[in-house]
Each structure stands twice: as structure tokens, then as C-alpha cells.
Design a protein that fits this description.
single chain, alpha+beta, L-amino peptidase D-ALA esterase/amidase, Ubiquitin-like (UB roll), 2 domains, six-stranded mixed sheet, 11 helices
Amino acid sequence: MNLTPSPFAPASFPHLPEVKGVRAATGSRGFYARRGVTRDDVFLFAFDEGTTCAGVYTVSRTASADVRWCREALKEGKGLARALVANSGNSNAFTGPKGRDKNEATLAALVATLGVPKEQCFLAATGVIGEPLPDPNYVGAFIPELAAKLSPPDWEAATRAFMTTDTFTKAAGTSLDMDGTTVNFAGIIKGSGMIAPNMATMLGYIFTDAAVAPDVLQEVLQDITDETFNCITVDGDTSTSDTVMVFATGASGVAPITSRDDPRLDSLAMALHSVCLELAQLVVKDGEGAQKFVTIEVTGAASHLSAQIIAAHIANSPLIKTAMAAGDANWGRIVMAVGKSLEPIDDEALAIWFDDVQVAKDGARMPDYSEAAASAVFAKREFTIRVDVGAGDQSATMWTCDLTHGYVDINGAYRT
């Protein structure tokens, strides 16, 4: 499949800081061979002993075998991690016993090759749903070769290895001073289509050499996910394979954060939040066929949840998204989306802005409404739609993209 690069693709891969206690390797197992493509399609990460982890996964009732295993491992392994394996080209979702057999073979290979506990190994897969692998050991047989190449991570190579319809590699990193020591964060993510809030649709991994107790890390990640990955949408569809995980190696040597009362937690959470938000927004900017990146702000809602629901109705509306693509500032479609949400509003107080251009006030079109000014906003690559629904003082923000014919082209040819 020939993909047109997103207009938001960065000129180069970002510099990510070194994260101590992490090694990685990538390789080509041949997931794309039938399409005549040779590319890296598997990565292996290995972590120092004592690495803690946290994870948030899809709520889909048809979650992949890999997601189901990760949930179990996170519990059984008590939040400790030694290895992570992910492949692209096949999601290992809706594959029944064969999917579980694939996981057991991969886990057995990790245990035998790396000498690590099974319940501290995590798996992920992304790609076509419902296609069992020809051999349950298809990935497992490749583990020794990957393990022999483990070295400090080549972040760009790892990011390329789990891309599917992505048109550019997505990564973000940061550093902070903790107790006089530099603590680093590096995150990679893949995702372009089948993106909707509900854990969003992607595989995302953040690595840090801070030391954080598993229960604290899990609570922080859940809070951050609700403010970042659960606030993006491309097409309103939720994947079988959604995964976001954080791995904290503790190799920086800084004393562990073991309580939410630790005063250092705020700065760590802020750093993690910044990486997660950047990764989440990069997914939207690479939305399948996307040409525009749009922020949806809802204010004046009766509750935060109500604001989120209204924002989601706006962000996911095909009518609004196609208007974005065409540069048609059809504010009436915003009114439609707000109304169909069935959330509390005061329709006589409803107000709408496109960036700083107000198009509606007090439940009606602005007296000095300018089609030219509104259209000029919709012609931009990036803009904000803000709606005040006049029902309270709560707000929410989401990020979305337009819907172009490119989306149809990509998904019409996804399996070919």
C-alpha cells in the first residue's frame, strides 16, 4: 500500500534521551512478505531486573489474545517487567486457541532465551484481525535472533517496526532533575486509523529510568490516559489491541517513589503527561488521510463527563469532519452534533467559535456573522472549534482530524 505522507510529518525523527536499564532489537519476521515488502516488523525490549510497569488496555469485548495476556501478566507479575515483544502485520485478535498458542510459544521462547519469569513478559500485536499465524511459534522462533542483537535502543528502528498504516514515526521524550540526578523519558507510539477514545487505538510505550512503585505508576498512568489518549479520535472506531504501557527501570539510581504523597511525584507525573500528550496528538496528526488537526473545546457543561460526550459527538461526526476537509465552515453541523448528544444544554445560550471568530451567540447566528472570516479559519491546517453550551461550568478538550477520500482509499485497500 502506497501511503501519502501526512502534512504534519516532522522533518526528522526527534532526539530521545538515553533511558538506562533498557535494551532493544528489531528484525524482519516476514509478516509483510506476501505483499512483496521486506521491512522490520518485530521488536524486542529487555529490561533490567526490578523494572516496574503499568498498563492500560482496550475495553473492547473482542480484545486480542495479546491484550488478554498483558492484563493477566500485569496482575500475576505484580507490576514487574523484564521483556516486551510486539509485531506488526497481524493483530492476533479473534484467533481463538491458535492465538493463545502463539502467545504461549512466544512466552516460552522469552523464558528460555532471556532467563526471565513468564509473568514479567509482555506481548503486543497490531494489524489484520482474525488471521491466525501459520505456526504458533512464528514469533517465538525469532526471539533468539533478536535477543542476540540486544543493545541500547535505536528508537527510530523500534518505532518503524510496529507501524502499519502510519506515514511517519512517532516519538517523544523529556528529562527532569530529581534529587540532583537526571531522569529520562522516551516514548514511541503507532496509530493512524481505528482511533477513538476508549483507550484510543494504538500501541504506545513509554520508558523511564526513574524508580516508581507499580501501584503508584498504575494510578498515575490511568489518570494521564484519561487526559491524553482517551481524548483523541480519528474515525470513532475502537481497536481490539489498544495498549499503553510505562516501564520504569530505576536505573537512574534515584530513590524510588513508593507513595502518592511523595513530593517528587508531581514533577514525574508532569513529565510523563507531556510525553503522553505529544504522542497522542501525533496519532491524530497522522490520522488516515488526514489533512487537518482540530481541537474541540466544550465549555459551560453540566459535568466534565457531559462535556466529554458533547466533544466526542462533534469530533466524531462524519458531517463535521468532511466539512473540515472541504474547508466548509458549516456551523449548523456543530449545532446538530451538540443536540444529538442528548446532554444538558441551554439552547438559548449556545455559543460557537472557530478560533477567535464567533459564529453563534445566545442560541442564534451572530448578527455580524462573516462567512469569509469563518471559512478562513476552516482553511487552516490547524484550528480550534469551541462551544459553550450554557449549562454549567465544566469543560473538556478533544483532538480530532478531518475525513478525506484518503481515508477511504487506505481502508478500502487495507488487506491488499
